[in-house]
Amino acid sequence: QVQLVESGGGLVQAGGSLRLSCATSQLTFTSYNMGWFRQAPGKEREFVAVIGARGDITLYSDSVKGRFTISRDNARKMVYLQMNSLNSDDTAVYFCAADFALRTPSSNIYYYQPRTYDYWGQGTQVSVAL
């Protein structure tokens, strides 16, 4: 049974940093694009970042570009999200997600949609205090 387990969330002061981790199991890791999404109370789940199965592509939402960095360790089957310069708008539950990389999509919009992803973690809370 495929499992994605996020960790590393917590409470941080504005301007601070956190590093989220996502451990995967029972997943042919190198066959999956790995994404991070977030969901704030009362809002829809939104795309944060994605890294390609071969690590050859990384995409970020405009709201986190330049502050967040996604990476993956194929040997450990882990994906990470380094978050710097956090602000209150970053407060949300962060989810790790896996998308079977069958083919290169014709548009990056493919990666931005939650429905693209086959597996999801349970989420980890990130709270940024002013």
Mean pLDDT over all positions: 96
Total strand segments: 11
Rg is 14 Å
Uncertain spans, ≥5 residues at pLDDT below 50?
Answer: none
Strand content: over 45%
* Approximate shape: globular
Determine the fraction of residues in helical runs and give it as a percent range: under 10%
Helical stretch tally:
1
SSE pattern, N- to C-terminal: EEEEEEEEEHEE
Strand-pairing-aware structural class = mainly beta
Largest sheet: 7 strands, mixed
Span of the ends, CA to CA: 40 Å
Characterization of the model:
Strands 2, 4, 5, 6, 9, 10 and 11 form a 7-stranded mixed sheet that branches. Strands 1-3-8-7 form a 4-stranded antiparallel sheet, with no helix packed on it. Helix content is 3%, strand content 48%. The protein has 1 helix and 11 strands. The protein is mainly beta.
What's the SSE blueprint?
Elements: E1 3-7, E2 10-13, E3 18-25, E4 32-39, E5 46-51, E6 58-60, E7 68-73, E8 78-83, E9 92-100, H1 109-112, E10 119-120, E11 124-129
Parallel strand pairs: 2-11
Antiparallel strand pairs: 1-3, 3-8, 4-5, 4-9, 5-6, 7-8, 9-10, 9-11
Q: Which descriptors would you attach to this protein?
A:
single chain; 130 residues; 11 strands; globular; mainly beta; seven-stranded mixed β-sheet; four-stranded antiparallel β-sheet; 3% helix
Condensed summary:
By secondary structure, this protein is mostly beta strands. It contains 1 helix and 11 strands, in the order βββββββββαββ.
